[in-house]
Fold:
Amino acid sequence: MLASLEINRSLLSSLLIVFFILVAGVSTVISEIFQENLEISKYRKLLNADDLTNLKSLVIKNNMGEFVFENDLSRSGRSWRITSPRKLLANGTIINSIVESLSKLKIRYVYQKDKINLSNFSLNNPLFEVSIENAAGSKTNISFGLINPIDRSTYAMLSTNTAIYHIDSTSIPLNSLNLTDLIDTRVFPHENKSVTSVDIFKGTTQNYHQLALTKKENNWFGKNDKELDNPKVVEYLKHLFELRSQLILDRMTPEQLEKVQTYLKKPQYTIKVSNRSNESYLYSVSQPIPDIPEMKLKKWQYVVVSTPDFHHAYILNKNFLKKLNVTENRLKYLDIKKLFY
Structure:
């Protein structure tokens, strides 16, 4: 009986050892497979996340021209600017969409970079090119060739290696983007959700405070901390921030620049917009102007609006002034009692 128990214990011990060995082996295999899948996933994308982090410059070259963008990393908003062929504020939404599209490019197949493949995939004469540089100084140029509209794919090569990649097409049609698509024509290019205060002054900031709006915990207040009708304020600012100009003065002659500066020395209004990052932007709005040299404008029918950096200015119809001549009373809660007394 004792011998039988010893045999059973020895067998159980052996089985446990075998079991633990099997578990350890399976865990190792699973770990290796998982790790391998991570590595494959890492290299399935054309660009690494690090390549697109903290971009400081972006260049797009297509059949419409070459567009050069610079990013001011010290700013939280309004950071992207076009520096060539014109100096204008860039459409931040489009730029962010371009960067996001580049980050999602997946590799389907890899080809050898030789003369035949370069010619077959139109990479000896690329349809368009994108160059990026991040804050760390890492530069990458991507050349895009033949586009297959049926399976939504294209061919690309990187300046950093010697291969040709069959990849997904970009979600943004980079080959046909033009300057109109890339500039921000909004006069006050701010996002309502990020703005914390808006101040409108008659004249300069030293003059009469026409309107003072301050956001506290998603609610808007006026002067003396009077709570305002939130939907009314949001709607007002929505219209203000969506205002666009079809006439932007970014290439002024010396005579035009002198006139514009003269008009803005004594503005009819000054607007100050502040955001969550404690950044403030000042805009000056002129009186209705008589003329601007070499421009056909009806006398006294237009105003000039400056930008914070004074790189360019906007021309707007004088009716825009009505949007600034708003009082706090228009944005207050409607007192129901006063309707009946």
User: Anything to note?
Assistant: Residues 192-334 form one domain. Helices lie at 2-44, 92-103, 115-120, 179-182, 230-241, 254-265, 321-324. The chain is about 25% helix and 30% strand.
